[in-house]
Amino acid sequence: MTLPKSIHLRFVLFSAAIAVLIVILNFLLPQVIHEKIWEIYFFMVITSFLIGLLNGFLLKSFAENFFQIMVLAMILRFIASLVFIGLEVWPGMANIILFIADFFMIFLFYLVFDIYTFLANLRPISK
Q1: CB-count burial class (<10 Å; 0-12, 13-18, 19+) for 86
Q2: Distance between CA 23 and CA 110 in Å, rounded?
């Protein structure tokens, strides 16, 4: 089975797979899932999608600055994540460690997807 060519369709399929994984883990191991997991999930989906759109626009306009654009995307995602964690944890939250662990796991899943997309685009851009 081959993956679809459209990066947007791949992103939707990947996000659906992560949502299914969250539901399964919430059913099997509810003690490892924080009650704000869906806020974390939707934050990462929206952030990753918007950064993906920004990457696509910038790469079309400035293809020679590929590395700088990819580093900018990673820095934007990291700063947005720190702000999100700060805003969620600041008012006081029960089980902060579980929240941060769940956030980190979802963050890593989307980071791996971003790196995979980055590596998949290296060959066509290098020509």
Answers
A1: exposed
A2: 17
The closest alpha carbon to 6, from 106, 120, 125, belongs to 120
Neighbours of 61 (CB within 10 A): 9
Neighbours of 83 (CB within 10 A): 10
The answer to whether residues 95 and 34 touch, using CB atoms and an 8 Å cutoff, is: yes
Stretch 104-125: mean pLDDT: 80
* DSSP 8-state code for residue 64: G
**pTM score of the predicted model:** 0.85
DSSP 36: T
> CA neighbours within 13 Å on the CB side: how many for 29?
7
Using DSSP, state whether 90 is helix, strand or coil: coil
- Asked whether the beta carbons of 37 and 30 are under 8 A apart, the reply is no
